[in-house]
Batch of 2 targets.
Target 1
Amino acid sequence: MFSCPNCQSKDIGKIGINQYYCWNCFIELSLAKGLIHTHQVEEDGTLSSLDDLFDENERRYSS
Ligand SMILES: [Zn+2]
């Protein structure tokens, strides 16, 4: 398991194939090619990427 790149919480729930949700800071996480991609769910339901906020090193995970 990995920890949230945003808040370092491990309180992460699975919501789909390679898709996770952080219950601590309420962002969506998806895993692809060894990197964690982060998305914020906007009030209108759209997703905006938060990847710019994190260094690539912070978004790596090992399975
Ligand atoms: Zn989090």
Target 2
Amino acid sequence: MKQVCSSCKKNKDYSEYHKDRTRKNGIQRYCKECKRFLDKEGYVPKYRGKYIIYYLPKERYVGMTLNLKKRINAHEKRDRRDITGYRVLLTIKNKKIAHIVETLFHLFGFRGFRY
Ligand SMILES: [Zn+2]
């Protein structure tokens, strides 16, 4: 069985893909090779085009980003924040609503970037 990878457009054998039980054919949309690259770039398909409200429990920090992995990486490497146990609180399509939600978290005493 073969599938065309959504990224490189090559027709590859099922063994070239990671499993994904949520998909009809049981394998991911992107081949392993592309997936590795996409993961490194911080691209998370399920969050595509959505604003991600995330939380760093050790820092009591709530932030918003379109690229979670890149941001978390920047917090760790550039800002020297403790990213242990970070998690996505919610994802929101509308930018204004996402901003309001983020601001609400800050009003409730969570740390974060102030506008
Ligand atoms: Zn590919």
